[in-house]
Fold:
Amino acid sequence: MLKVENVTKYYGNFKAVDNLSFEVKDGEIFGLLGVNGAGKTTTFRMIMRLIDDYEGTITLDNKPIDYTVTNKIGFLTEERSLLTKLTVKEQILFYGHLKDMKEEEILKKLDYWLDRFEVKEYKDKKIKELSKGNQQKIQFISAIINDPKLLILDEPFSGLDPINIEEFKEVILEFKKKGSTIIFSSHRMDHVEMFCEKLVILLRGKPVIEGYISDIKKQYRKKNIIVIGDIDIKDAKKIDGVVNIEKNANEYIIKIEDESKIQNVFKYISKCKNVTKFVVEEPSLNEIFIAKVGEAYEK
Ligand code: ATP
Structure:
């Protein structure tokens, strides 16, 4: 289990991370989210001990993270750090040796992953000759070559096409199944909703939303009712409990204060013509994020 407790980091007088706490259990995928400059990379760098002048404590399985455990960690950095003049094989051997792995083991795993990511033919090619997406696959392989117990992924999906996102996602879920602790950052809420159960959203280094996504959605209370039919937006906006109404191509999204207001909307919609859809949905994480970050900005 990864435990981050009351961590604060200053760069000079500037507080980049402000009293941050969270824990990620074995087999859990944790999302570290936030707008640009929120403090995500700084947090990763503190976990990796690339920054160690911070207040608070960070432990992995109740032990401080030091050289004795770094071999069990895989880190995909945001500023991609491939040595582009090396071949793929040389690069992965370099990372594998840093993790104290034997050459034979590194090469066996490398063949497996190159095959899995369908880039076998690039093994002896220089990294600079590879496309951006393929370079990212090699970077990802370098992060997982040691079968990490703790896998840290800073923006793993940036620049990837949807097919490759699926491939990465599958592999990340396999590590979760094997009991690895996984923590990743993203700006994209849909990526987070796709496979992570727990998260913290940072704003100026401070958590504005945290916990299990299911709980966050419950606590948010607001619901969306999706309707297809002939409704009069002006009238519908007057219904008690309706906060707002948006219109997509052919659907109305009626936003209500909470569950108790569903009946009011239902009563109105049942009198409308050509109604073919009435579905109550939880708001997306993106919607909650925008609302919460907006509120926090106003404070
Ligand atoms: P992004 O999504 O843009 O990568 P981030 O959430 O990863 O952002 P950080 O890189 O952790 O954010 O930066 C947090 C804050 O700390 C920013 O305001 C940044 O300008 C500042 N910062 C980061 N590194 C340094 C540094 N070495 N010296 C001074 N300030 C820094």
